[in-house]
Amino acid sequence: xxxxxxxxxxxxxxxxxxxxxxxxxxxxxxxxxxxxxxxxxxxxxxxxxxxxxxxxxxxxxxxxxxxxxxxxxxxxxxxxxxxxxxxxxxxxxxxxxxxxxxxxxxxxxxxxxxxxxxxxxxxxxxxxxxxxxxxxxxxxxxxxxxxxxxxxxxxxxxxxxxxxxxxxxxxxxxxxxxxxxxxxxxxxxxxxxxxxxxxxxxxxxxxxxxxxxxxxxxxxxxxxxxxxxxxxxxx
Amino acid sequence: xxxxxxxxxxxxxxxxxxxxxxxxxxxxxxxxxxxxxxxxxxxxxxxxxxxxxxxxxxxxxxxxxxxxxxxxxxxxxxxxxxxxxxxxxxxxxxxxxxxxxxxxxxxxxxxxxxxxxxxxxxxxxxxxxxxxxxxxxxxxxxxxxxxxxxxxxxxxxxxxxxxxxxxxxxxxxxxxxxxxxxxxxxxxxxxxxxxxxxxxxxxxxxxxxxxxxxxxxxxxxxxxxxxxxxxxxxxxxxxxxxxxxxxxxxxxxxxxxxxxxxxxxxxxxxxxx
Lengths: 235, 273
Fold this sequence. Notes:
The complex is a heterodimer of chains A (235) and B (273). Chain A is mostly helical. Helix content of chain A is 81%, strand content 0%. Chain A has a single domain (2-234), classed as MetI-like fold. In chain B, β5 (140-142), α7 (148-159) and β6 form a beta-alpha-beta unit. Chain B is 43% helix and 23% strand. Chain B is built from 11 helices and 12 strands.
């Protein structure tokens, strides 16, 4: 069990030394996962709000589907994206396989259902509250969705964070479509998998500690923004 | 106002997406290779020399030999550098590769726990050792992933006239994962493991494990390199790929391989003709 102790010491040293390779890996992790969250939010927030607000045949089925897709295994997403982007696949001509863009695509597919499903949940609560008001004002669907998204923005930050957490922590998809190529597609999780496979468990665990600290930092930043914005809104 | 911000954030997202995609567009090749070569640190040692000389960036995708060959068949790589000669020859014969060259070799070994329940320590006969392991029903962790090492293991069981998969899940345990993961699992459950020497030397979670069986002709481990056929996959960067193959077969490349040591031990022995 001494691995735990040495892992924390090692993690501390890694961060203190500001090792150039480690920084590159951390930055790529952030770049890939934050971009994926941004794209997923652009798709998932309106989609979730639409599912919660509009009434159309097949809506329940769509909600069921989106909820079920939250459980998509990363490896399966990775495999699907690989088959699409492979040179033998339909999108091979894009030459995106083994690039950060491929990793972004995979993570976007992985977390869009999460963001959409959670958004639908959050927005439907708001929608129940606002329904009478909307009716009396005679607002159209578009305006209703925009209003709901705006008023629920703080809760939706948490929704996006859930998406980020899933993206930055997954290894199955980015390993397949990124290839864990040094200085090109190596991110935190694939590094951890690599060090584990080298039997360097202390280093792997240390990288895990760094990754968790990173997630903590991002969450703290968002929470601070949220609290500050709320306070300013109440002043 | 909100609309403009929305559009701006979309554009920013797209720009970010493409800026990271552009990194892959430099003069570079993708080498589909195996975990044993990558995990041992060989590439970290020799590739900078090649890149410095030619300006070509070499991106290594390290997977099991079976998956590497499959990826190369799909045209997702310019060069294939693996260790399962029969599969490589089949790859070339079917037109997926141009020509196969021997690059280097080392050997496979059987590692096991210090108490050695099957009593194989010190043996130089891999096939006889596997028979003993099977007879004593001692735990054996197999890659089970169609990798080069797995193919070698299957061939050894065949030579021993034993079908271990009949006892899969009992004493014969197929991890279905990479060499490192299988060694971790093997060390964790006290199972014998067939591994290549390079991975073993660089492996850090050895526990009380030692090399028990080595030095048998049957354990020879040959690595081969070949260009993915550009006639099959026009996207293949044939020129840069061939430059890499020529370099690794040249005296300079071969010397670089021979010079790589870990803990004072040479991991790979060049044998290009």
